[in-house]
Specification:
Helix content is 28%, strand content 14%. The longest helix is centred in the first third of the chain and has 18 residues. It has a 5-stranded antiparallel sheet. The chain has 5 helices and 5 strands; from the N terminus they run ααβαββαββα. It has a domain of 165 residues: Ribosomal protein L5 (50s Ribosomal Protein L5, Chain: A), CATH 3.30.1440.
Length: 242
């Protein structure tokens, strides 16, 4: 009925109401909206001077490497045993049942190493252990170059002396290819970790990878760097032997 009455009145359709202005259009008054570009973040200025080289790396180049070349009769610097990387690993068996534990331990691992931690996952499925492929089983960090030397310096000068009932490292913990492994009881031995803020206490494994061709060369490399091996002479950084 409404359509018929409109035609009878004038034969024209009723005019449509005017479209409202778009929200982005500039309109005078209180409802004005402006689209201003966000200011670009200022780029961090590069340091004027490069950071100094790690102390332990300089000590290796000036003292340890010549001593190794003289003892083993090596003529080339590249053929002299050297440290390539340090792997810090934490195995968390109940990571799938308690994800908060894995997250807290990863935060501690990042605080200790100064580097982002990586979640390790199962490669195969084992029915007896309720383990499926791809499940989170721990976390790890791989340190190289300057961070590796800085971490090793803190480990030898601060962390190991803080360990309770420490009687020296096992000089036989090598894999036959010049790589050394050791374990730490918990993360409280690191000064970066505050004991009152730790939610879960957990140990960790450290693996030191080298280019040594034998365990004897690697053992001498670590001894000269200051590793306190059991039943072996300990070299202190800055001593007469070093």
């Amino acid at each position: 009925m409404a359509k018929k009455t409109d035609k009878a009145a004038g034969g024209k359709k009723a005019a449509k109401p005017a479209k409202q202005a778009k929200s982005g259009a500039a309109s005078p008054g209180k409802g004005k909206i402006s689209f201003k570009a966000r200011p670009k973040k200022k780029k961090m200025e590069a340091p004027k001077e490069p950071p100094p080289p790690p102390r332990l790396k300089t000590y290796y180049q000036d003292t340890v490497r010549p001593a190794l070349k003289e003892k083993f009769g090596l003529s080339c610097d590249l053929g002299t045993p050297r440290l390539t990387k340090i792997v810090i690993n934490m195995g968390v068996g109940d990571a799938n049942e308690n994800p908060r534990k894995l997250e807290a331990l990863m935060e501690d691992l990042e605080a200790v190493s100064g580097q982002h931690a990586q979640v390790t996952r199962a490669r195969i499925s084992v029915a007896n252990f309720n383990l499926r492929e791809g499940m989170a089983v721990g976390a790890r960090v791989t340190l190289r170059r300057a961070r590796m030397w800085e971490f090793l310096d803190r480990l030898l000068s601060v962390v190991i002396p803080r360990m309770r009932d420490f009687r020296g490292l096992n000089p036989k913990s090598f894999d036959g290819r010049g790589n050394f492994a050791m374990g730490l009881p918990d993360q409280l031995v690191f000064p970066e970790i505050k004991g009152d803020r730790v939610e879960y206490f957990h140990g960790m494994d450290l693996v030191f990878c080298t280019t040594a061709r034998s365990d004897e060369q690697a053992r001498e490399l670590f001894r000269l760097l200051g590793f306190p091996y059991r039943d072996l002479d300990v070299v202190v950084l800055g001593s007469k032997e070093s």
